[in-house]
Design goal:
Elements lengths: L8 E2 L5 H26 L4 H29 L11 E2 L7 H4 L4 H25 L3 H28 L2 H33 L1 H11 L2 H26 L10 H18 L9 H27 L3 H24 L1
Amino acid sequence: MTSLFSRKVHFRDLSESEILALAISSEEDDSRIYRNFASRLQAEYPATSAMFMDMAAEEDRHRQSLIALYRIRFGHTIPLIRRAHVSGFYERKPEWLLEKLPISRVREIAAEMELEARTFYETAAARVTDAETRRLLGDLAAAEAGHERRAGELVAEHLTVEALADEEHQARRQFVLTWVQPGLAGLMDGSVSTLAPIFAAAFATGDTWSTFLVGLAASVGAGISMGFTEAASDDGELSGRGSPVKRGIASGVMTTIGGLGHALPYLIPDFWTATTIAVMVVFVELWSIAWIQKRFMDTPFWRAALQVVVGGGLVLAAGVLIGSG
């Protein structure tokens, strides 16, 4: 079987002992994946973590049964044959790519893992002609179907309504801390802090292109500054706010967008047309920020409107007065 490590072989070329060895290594891999899921989710999603630990134990029991069968039929030396060695065999994604997935997607992947294994064995059983091999593959397919049923039982056992509600609350809280808070801070900064320089430049020069360049520079500069500041302010380890890179991206991108919103209208050559549209955009931006605060931060709408809309209006007026002076 040394050729398996230098090239992929077709499933149809495997002997019964090699098929059984492949099943053993596959069960071992899936058990490890489930345990990694459980370890990663233990702190924030204990109910789902417990479910994955039970599923890992199920995979261990099936692997032990397969090993016992292999020893009876083929001896104690089991060749190491993995999915990657076999052409057409389903492959798992690298586990490090799965670490940052949302909890709902992790559960979906677990269901897909069981379905893929069962489907593979059923398809393989339909393609072979040897009666003994067909029986073996059919037994493996039945075992995987049993995994699926057991997975459903484990979901019902561990993921109660209360547990799901707690986990959904935790997932929403993490989304708010990692994406909404820094993004909202960036949007507010980009929308409000760039008002004065953009409208001051507009009324001081009366030139739309120059005003656009000022707005572009202010927006991009503020975005870069806010992004790096957010990323460097907290590594997320103790605060639980999540990846500093994600927070920095959210803050930087939204800061830039907030400033560009009322800078882009000055691409229009006519000054008063561009200014009128820019003021309308500012109005939409400020009320959108107030709505986001109400929706995700549970801030009373009147308070958010007072803070953002009134404050933004004052900054806009300051820019116009300074530019007109």
